[in-house]
């Protein structure tokens, strides 16, 4: 049974890159273009990992992390933030919201896979 990963990013190109990388390693990938769409998507089944951008319209990544952490179903779901933001204050905000890890874009596919395998198996 393959692990399901939700990739949340307002950039289709970035979602495609994440999808391509993870699908190549045997993961099932579901995509959403912002936090609100991600929450709707989560209603449709089990997700083993969420990878989210920070800067998105409608609901940003920090708001999404907080929403997931306040939901008993997703309280312990690993959440990786994949963003261009490398500022420590943003990282702390993400950590305080409940993010499991932080990856700065542009990412190296091997590095992303290593982190995903570490937090998700």
Automatic annotation (TrEMBL):
CDD domains: REC_CheY4-like (cd17562). Keywords: Phosphoprotein. Pfam families: Response_reg. Residues 4-120 form the Response regulatory domain. Signal peptide: none annotated. The modification 4-aspartylphosphate is found at residue 53. It comes from the Bacteria. SUPFAM superfamilies: CheY-like (SSF52172). Transmembrane segments: none annotated. InterPro entries: Bact_response_regulator, CheY-like_superfamily, Sig_transdc_resp-reg_receiver. This is Response regulator. The gene is cheY34H-1.
């Amino acid at each position: 049974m393959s692990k399901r990963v939700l990739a949340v990013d307002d950039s289709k190109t970035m979602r495609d890159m994440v999808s391509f990388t993870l699908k190549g390693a045997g993961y099932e990938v579901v995509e959403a273009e912002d936090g609100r769409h991600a929450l709707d998507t989560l209603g449709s089944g089990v997700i083993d990992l969420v990878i989210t951008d920070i800067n998105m319209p409608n609901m940003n990544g920090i708001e999404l992390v907080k929403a997931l952490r306040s939901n008993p179903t997703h309280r312990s779901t690993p959440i990786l933030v994949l963003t261009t933001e490398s500022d420590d204050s943003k990282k702390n905000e993400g950590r305080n919201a409940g993010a499991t890890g932080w990856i700065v874009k542009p990412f190296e596919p091997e590095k992303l896979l290593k982190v995903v395998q570490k937090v998700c198996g």
